[in-house]
Queue: 4 jobs
Job 1
Amino acid sequence: MELKSRITLDEDKIINILEYIQQKPLNSYVYPELFDEKFNISINECMRVFILLEKKNTLKQVYKVYCPICKDFSESIFEDINELEEQTTCENCGKELFEKENPYKYVVIYFKVLRNE
Ligand SMILES: [Zn+2]
C-alpha cells in the first residue's frame, strides 16, 4: 500500500490504525491517545499516520478544549481553529480556558472520520 512506503513505521502498527478507523462510523472521532493505550503506538507515530490520512481525505483534524478542573473534554467540537476563540470558557464550570501567552494550551486535537473504506 502506498502509505507504508512513505512512513517508517511498523507495518503492524499502520494496519492496526487503519483497521480501527475502518470500523468507525463516518463522522465519528478518533484521537492519537487512544492508539497509545490500545495498541501501544506512540502519539507521534500516530500523528504522522493521521496527517497522511488527512491528506487522503480519510480524516479531518478537529479540535476540542480540555478543562483541567472538570478533567474532561468539551462537548463542542471545532472544525476550524479560529472557532476556538468563541469558546473561551468551560461549558461545565465556566473556567477560563484561554491564555493569551499560550492560546492552544487547552486545545486537544481529534480527527473526524470522513471515509472508512
Ligand atoms: Zn470545567
Job 2
Amino acid sequence: MIGFESVGRVADFPQGYVRGFKLQDEEVAVVQVDGRFYAFSNACTHEDVDLADSMLNGVELACVFHGSVFNVETGKALAGPAYKPLALYSVRVEGEDVFVGEE
Ligand code: FES
C-alpha cells in the first residue's frame, strides 16, 4: 500500500498522454481524460511492460506491444492477449496539485 504522493500539477497531464512514475516501490501510470484523472499499474498484464508509450483513446489504453486494450477507469482488459485487469490507484486533485496513492 502506498501513501499519497504528488505527481505534478494538473497542467502536466495533457489529454491523451500517459505519464509513468515510481511511487515508493510501485510503477504507476497517470492520465487525464476530460478533466478526470486515472492512475493504474504501469505494467501491461500480458508481459509486464511499461504502458507509458501506449496509445490512449478516451478511457481506452492500447498497449503498443501486442495491442491489448484496457479501460483505465475500471482497469478491465477489453481486448487480449492480456486478460487480467490493471491494478488501480486513487487520485486526489487539490487545487492544481495531483496526488496518487491508495485509500
Ligand atoms: S505486452 Fe502488452 S499486449 Fe503484450
Job 3
Amino acid sequence: MSYSNISKMNFEVSGEQKIFLDKIDRVCKSIRDYETRCYLDEKINDRVIPEFGEIGMLGCPISKKYGGLGYDILTYLFAIERIGREGNSLRTFFSAHVSIGQMVLQNWGTEEQKKKYLTNTTNGTSIMGFALTEPDAGSDPKRMTTTFEERGGNYILNGTKHWVGNGTFAKVITTYARGPDGKISAFIVDASSKGFDAQEMHNKMGLLTVKNAEITFENCLVPKQNLLGKIGNGLSVAFSALIDGRLSVAAGAVGVMKDCLDESIRYSQKREQHGSVLAKKQLIQEHLATMIVNIESSRWLVYRAGMARQKLHDYVEGLKEKDANWQDALNRENKEYSALRNKADRLAAIAKLHATNAAFDCANRAVQVFGSYGYQKTSRVARHFLDSRAIVIYEGANEVLKLKIASLEMGAKYDAY
Ligand SMILES: Cc1cc2nc3c(=O)[nH]c(=O)nc-3n(C[C@H](O)[C@H](O)[C@H](O)COP(=O)(O)OP(=O)(O)OC[C@H]3O[C@@H](n4cnc5c(N)ncnc54)[C@H](O)[C@@H]3O)c2cc1C
C-alpha cells in the first residue's frame, strides 16, 4: 500500500490564493442582501456578472492566455465553496458558466475555438451553458434524439434540450447530438445561430436567481469548425464535463452546509424555550454536531477529488504540448490516462453523492432548528432547503452515481447502466 498521495496533500492556501479568496468573500458579502431580494422576486441577480467579473471569478480556472486567472482546480473549488454559502442558486450560475461551460471548451477545444469563444467568456461579455439533457434522455444520455447531419460546410442540428442552466441568456453553449451513424458528437453553438431558440422554464421549486431554458434546434446551422473534440466522441466530452460539474456542486454543497451551521448556531444561541437557549438543548446540539461532521467529511472528499482532477488535467495538458494528435491518445488502451480519469471520475462522484445528501440533510436540520421561522422563504435556511433538493438530482442523480461508484470499483463488466 502506498501512502505517498496522503503525505503530498497540502491544502494550505498561499498568500496569493488568500488575496483572491478574500476578494470572493467581500463580493459575496456585498451582494448578500440583493441576492435575497432577487430570490424572493425570482429574478436574475444582475450584480453577479459585473462584480464577480471585476475580481476575475468569471474565468478563475481558465488560462491567462484567454483572459482567465489561470488558477488550479483546488483554488477554484475553494472559491466555489465560499460562493456556496450564499446558496446553490448563485453557485449554479458559476457551475454552468465555468465548470460545465468554459472548462469543457478549455479541455477539448482547438486553439482557434478557444481564442474565438473563451476570451469573451472570461470578461463576461459572453456567458456559457451546457445542454445535454433532453425531455426523454436524462440519466441516460445515450437515449438522446437530437440529431446532426453534414450539409455543405455546416452541421445541421435538430432536437430539444431542457433544463439548460444560464440558457435564457447564454451566448455560447456546448451541446450533443447523434449523427447518421448513431454516434454522438459535441458542438459549440452560438445562441445567435439560425434555428436556435431558448425559452425560460418556469415553476421551479427553488434555485430562483438562476434561469434554466428549454432549447430547440430547428435546422440549426453550426459551422464545421465548431465540432468540439473528435467526431463520435461526444459522450466522452460530456462525461468529462460532468466530472467538473460534480466537483463544483460538491464544493458548493460544503458552503451551503457551513451557512446552515452558522445560521443554526446564531439562532439557537438567542432563541429561548423551556428556560434556556436552544443551543443548550442536547437534541439541538445533535443537529449541530451532525452538520459539523457532514461539513468536515464532505470537505475532505471534495479536496481529494479536486487533487485527482488536477492530476488528470496536468496529464492531458502535458500530452497536448507533446502530441498534435493528443485526442487519439486518450483512449482505454492508454493505461495512465484511463487510471487518472477513472480516479477523478470515481472521487468526484463520491464527493458529489456524499456532499449533496449531507447538504440536504443539513438544510433540513437547520429548518428544524429554526422551527416555524425556518419555514419562510425569507430565511436563509429555507432557501438552502429548497435549493438543495435540486443538487441530489442534477449533475448525475445520486442513484446513478451509486451505480457509477460501484461499477468503477468492480470493473467495466459490472456496468449497471
Ligand atoms: C435545477 C436543474 C438544473 C439542471 N441543469 C442542467 C444543465 O445545465 N444542463 C443539462 O444538460 N441538464 C441539466 N439538468 C438536468 C439534470 O442533469 C437531470 O435532471 C438529471 O440528469 C436526471 O435526469 P431526469 O431528470 O431526466 O431524471 P431520470 O433520468 O428520468 O431519473 C428519474 C429517477 O430515476 C433514477 N434512475 C435513473 N436511472 C436509474 C437506474 N439505472 N437505476 C436506478 N435509478 C435510476 C434517477 O436517479 C432519478 O431518481 C438540470 C436539472 C435540474 C433539476
Job 4
Amino acid sequence: MTSFATHRRKVHDGALPAHRRMSALRTCLTEFAPYGFRATFHHLRGSAGIPRNPAHDPDSLVRAVEELQAAREVWVPGILAWQEARRVQKRAGVRRPDPPAPQPRAWCPNPEFHPLGPLAEVMPRVLRAREYAGRGCPVCEADHSAVSWSDGHGVHRLCAHCGVQLGWTPQAVDDVHRRSACASRWRAVWRGDAEWERPPRA
Ligand SMILES: [Zn+2]
C-alpha cells in the first residue's frame, strides 16, 4: 500500500522526466489493477489520453493515476475492515479466513476488452462479483452469451458484454502464432500505437 502511495507521488512530480513518471504509473498498476495489469493499462491510456510520448502531455499521467486512486479508495475501506476482522478471527484460532479476503480484481485477459466507464464506478461491481449467484456475468450482470478468446496458451470464455473472464480451458494444441499475435498487439497498446476501438473477438 505504501509503495502505491510513493509511486503515485512520483507520477505527480513535475520535476521528474515523463518517462520516470510513466514508470511510476506502471509500478502503481503492479500494485492495483482491477482488470489485471494489461487491461487496466489499456483502459487508462484511453480514458486519460496518454499520448505515445508521455512528455507531450505529462498531465495525462496524473489523470491516469488519479482514476486508479479513486478506484483504490473504493476497495481500501473493505480490505481494512477485513484485516481487522481477520485479526479477531486469528486470536480466536480460526485458521481459514471467513469470508476470504475481498479481491479487487475481475480478470480481463484480452487487454483491449474490459468494462467501460470510470474505474471507480465499476469497482463496487468488481468487489461484489464473488458473491454474485446469478446466471449472467458477475461484474456487469448481463445475461449475454460468452465469447471465446485465445491467447495461444488457452481459450478464455469472456463475458460478451464486458470482457471479464468467465472460464478458461488449456489450449489442446499450443498456438505459437496466436501467442505472437497477442504479444505484438500488447506491444502496440503499450507503446500507444493501438487504435482504441474494440478489436474483433477472435
Ligand atoms: Zn460482463
